[in-house]
Amino acid sequence: MGKTVSKVREAKLELYRRKGKIHARETAGRFNTLRWAMVWLTQSIFYGACWLTWESDGLRRQAILFDIAHEKLYLFGLVLWPQDALLLAIVLILAATGLFLVTALAGRLFCGFACPQTVYTTIFTWVEARVEGDHLARLRLDQAPKGARKLLLRSTKHGLWFLIAAWTAITFVGYFTPIRELLPALPRWEVGPWEGFWLIFYAAFTYVQAGLAREAVCQHMCPYSRFQGVMFDDTTRNVAYDRQRGEPRNLRRQAGNTGDCIDCGICVQVCPTGIDIRDGLQYQCINCGLCIDACDEVMDKTGAPRGLIRFASERELAGQAQPAGLRQRPRVAAYAALLAIFAALGAWTLNQRSLLLVDVLRDRGALLRETADGRIENAYTLKLMNLAEAPRDFTVEVSGLPGVEIVGEHEFSAAPGSIRPVSLTVSAPGDNSLSGIQPISFRITARQAPATSVVEKSSFALP
Ligand code: SF4
Ligand code: SF4
């Protein structure tokens, strides 16, 4: 009898270990709760943030918008231009370094809880379970012959998946084309070719990746799973099976001197990537912690302490103490230092950022000109780039030589987000004791915002 039960359980395990479609068993517990909390958090931000608006200079606009046509990125009150590419690069470096640090500390925590692939797979499989039933019902449905019930269940599931994928694509494109303009245009398909392309592409991408490919993306397509190992050290905490405590595994602990693992296989059944964590650390493991939840429940039932599967480092599992300081964890220290450096660099770049950029070009055609009253004139072209979202009037002043001044107009207006080229003539007395090329500076100040002021160095040619 015992052998028969064991064979049945082993066959069930094989079903889950089999490479093919994985129907993970649902489980409850702290990591499952955390996973769903992350789904709600990330998706509330993703689906909701494109609807937020922001008022700037009397105009109300979408708060977060990648306006590719006008080469602007709106982030609430901040407007970034192509000139701010360094800032965007720093943000990307910060994100990558933050990911490396988290991975060095706790393995693939991002994969298990925040990666879009995991998040959407969680949503899509939840829908699947509501429509087709639990994991066993879904396995049976897979093997069932074609029929009206199977067709109905499958079409309902795919229909719901399609709706989620479509809304995800609309939201995604809504970060590039204002969503309040995009949505009314959709029923009449009055969208541009790029918007149309991305709507179809992103909907299909979500549908295939989260509905059909699922864990295969983590196992075979994601490059991160392949190189994450280089960030680990022997103190990195990963989801791990405590072999010393669990083995020898047995179905009936009371039968003799066995480990805590009762070989129920539930940890394998709940695993979304279909692996057996008892085989050791595997690149397919996304550190979602669902096997911990499942095993803790089993431990509660058997009366053994929780944590047979838990977040643990190699050192902990070997019975060694975790190192106390960062000095013994050079990788963690390096990632933390890089994170701090780039955060400081980003803050400094943001602080130094001006809403006015100026280019000064000296007229090379005519080096200098002497006027009838004996003054020397040089000609310049100033390119005033107004990065503010409102029109600005700029006052130009010149200094650096005795008696130097601007001839004629020295106030210029520039439209929001525009480059205004202006021609300037600068004059200095000809009886100056100086001669040759002399340094001068232009100060350009926005009248409406005096804090927006730029000093540009140039030169003045004297005989
Ligand atoms: S859930 Fe726990 S007890 Fe059951 S097979 Fe997995 S490790 Fe063993
Ligand atoms: S082994 Fe555990 S932590 Fe890893 S993917 Fe499977 S369920 Fe998640």
Write up what this structure looks like:
With 463 residues, the protein is α+β, with helices and mostly antiparallel strands. The protein has 16 helices and 16 strands. Strands 8, 9, 10, 12 and 14 form a five-stranded antiparallel sheet that branches. A four-stranded antiparallel sheet has the order 13-11-15-16, with no helix packed on it. It has a three-stranded antiparallel sheet with strand order 3-4-5, with no helix packed on it. A hairpin with a 6-residue loop joins strand 15 (436-446) and strand 16 (453-462). Helix 7 (148-173) crosses helix 9. The longest helix has 26 residues, at 148-173. The structure holds iron/sulfur cluster (SF4) (2 copies). One iron/sulfur cluster is lined by residues 239, 270-273, 275, 277, 285-291.
- In total, the number of domains comes to 3
What small molecules does the structure contain?
Answer: iron/sulfur cluster
Report on the biggest sheet: 5 strands, antiparallel
Structural class: alpha+beta
* Quantity of strands, as a count: 16
Percentage beta strand: 15-25%
Q: Number of DSSP helices?
A: 16
CA gyration radius, whole angstroms: 32 Å
Instruction: Extract low-pLDDT stretches.
Output: none
Give the helix level as a range of percent. 40-55%
